[in-house]
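Reagents: none. Just compute today. Clp R domain-containing protein.
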Amino acid sequence: MSTKSPGQQSLEIDWLTPQTREIILLAQQEAEKTGTPAVQLEHLLLGVLSEGKSLVAKQLQSCTLDMATLRAHIDAVYANNFYFKEDNPPFSQAAEECVQNAIAMITYYLTRYRPSARVAANHLVLSVISHPGIQRLQMAHPTQIATLRLQITADMEPNFLRHSENLLHPPPAREVPKPPTWKRANTNVRVHCPSCQRPIQANWKYCTYCGHHRTKVCPNCSAPSPAVADARFCIECGHHLDP
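Predicted 3D structure written out:
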């Protein structure tokens, strides 16, 4: 039975326990029964309940997330997506992401300490209830989902939980501030030389036509004269300024 979605790679089933593989096959069968075009996240939970032998299946039932509740939710949410039943429906992007996230939990952490570790049903369900695509079910049954999460994670190792939390809920990317963009001053502003009255650019210190120094300076100490009208003496040395 294919677990390949259009345009996506097949699931790495070698990382799944035989029980988890059976759950995935049962999830496809549940999608066939409901006539949805692809295996959704809720179908994975139905697959866990259909298999029924895992501890997390009993935890789902104890949280009143039984098959009747999940099927009613699927009917309400995916009512407009029903179509003629087709064998082996592909996995939706969200469902495939959940399986891949569960595999990532195992390959990154557990293989360092337990080389034979594989994705079990509880890893798959934890990945499902942590996915943003399950938000509608979580809004309809918030207490049950929260209780289920506590029951699943109660026996997990703290380091594994920290890694799983970072994987399933990565921190938002920090925005790198953009460097300020400095606008170059407009150097093409035209003024007139006070000596020859020809048009020159405002940033010129000397007139290119007559050599006039546009800023009046003291002939004794070369200090610039104050920008006031009728300045007659240098503010630095007191020398008399030419008019």
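The first strand starts at residue 190 and ends at 192.
Action item: order primers for follow-up constructs.
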